[in-house]
Amino acid sequence: MINIATAPLELNSRRFYLGLALALGLHLFLISLPIAFWVDMNLYKAWSIDMVQQGFANFYNYSTNCDYPPTYLYVLWVIGKIYQFFDPSFSHTDGLLLTILIKIPPVFADIASAFLIAQILKAHTSVDKAYTMGLIYAFNPLMLFVSAVWGQVDGIMTLLMLWAFYLIQQNYVVRAGLLIAVMVIVKPQGLFFAPFLVLSQWFRQTWWKWGAIIAGGLVAIWLIILPFYGVGSIAVVSIINPFLSLYKLLRATADYYSFASVNAFNFWGWANWIRDYTTFGGFSYKVIGLSLLGILLGWLAIFLYQQRHHQAQFAGQCLALSTMLFGFFMLPTRMHERYMLYGLAFLAIAIALIPAVKWLYWGLTLTGAVNVGYAYLRYNYEDLFYAIPEIWLQSVVYITSAVNVTLFALMLFHTFRMFRQQSQQSQQSLLSVPLTSEGSR
């Protein structure tokens, strides 16, 4: 007879959706509080209002401080239109309503991401475990803070990455490629996902699919950015002008943040806010960081190619993608504190198949909370921040950066260990095949 008091609680669909509803309720409670990262929130408010008042074609000429590509500006335009219904003259934008409206998209993105994690996992593990991982992500305190308290939109990028991963698993590679193209002009960090598509699929897909991704991606980007860049005062549309204007925007943004680290506690944490053209051994920090990233991508290319016929290839892909996304945060220069978030969703998936990585998931949640909290305190509560002894603050930066380097090394260790184990299994399989001779035929 089963002891109900000690039996594990199995999650069915009803309990899962109840859990998502509770997570959504917690998010909505947090966005109802008058708190946010006001540097970002005030920019979002200004861009939302400018989109309504200035229109698409004149937006970048008027909002010269906007460093976002056009795609998310459509969302801010919709938010501005909704808000205008309640405040036609935009005279009360410092109130709570506009702040809540701006926070709603990333909040719903977090819940949708939790749902998608469960859907992805259902094909590879038990329904109970799939639902559990979805809820673990839905209640992740770091994601809660960034979306519902800070008000940043990294949760939307995470959702898009999960969607692209789901499409790849369903073999909808062209659709995934088109989505990745759109991701890049939501935020440039969408580019972090692109190598995974190439490295995991180049040996599986025919040439015409890659051609369709390139051509379709360029068309999709052109159509999205056209209203912002393509129509001039004489209404003449240039095919190349939108791409050139987008390139100038992205280049200007990258040059503006030309530091080894922008509050990111990573490999370059010790060089926070030091220009990345500073040299070491004759090479700039930027070149060193990109070289390290190139080495990582080379290793993951080998790892993913080995996985192509293995039964555990899905687990290997989750681990490789988590490592790649965290590597983009750890190794190159110019990274911000929140860019480590993207890999957490895929680590949550990997936990269901590789239980040992749960320590990486919670470790990165903790260090990410410290990193994000440091930036939040620095810009939201400057007087309190600068009242703290500098040696304490520097200790937080150095220690957390060192822990992140250690966690990244452990993540790489898991890829090496899986590679070795599967190589040994392949060799044993070859040795177990009986040899045939001419005489035995």
UniProtKB/TrEMBL annotation:
Keywords: Cell membrane, Glycosyltransferase, Membrane, Transferase, Transmembrane, Transmembrane helix. The chain crosses the membrane at residues 16-39, 96-121, 142-166, 172-199, 211-244, 256-275, 287-306, 312-332, 339-361, 391-413. Its main location: membrane. The keyword Membrane applies. The keyword Transmembrane applies. InterPro entries: GT87 (IPR018584), LipidA_mod_glycosyltrf_83 (IPR050297). Belongs to the glycosyltransferase 87 family. This is DUF2029 domain-containing protein. It comes from Pseudanabaena biceps PCC 7429.
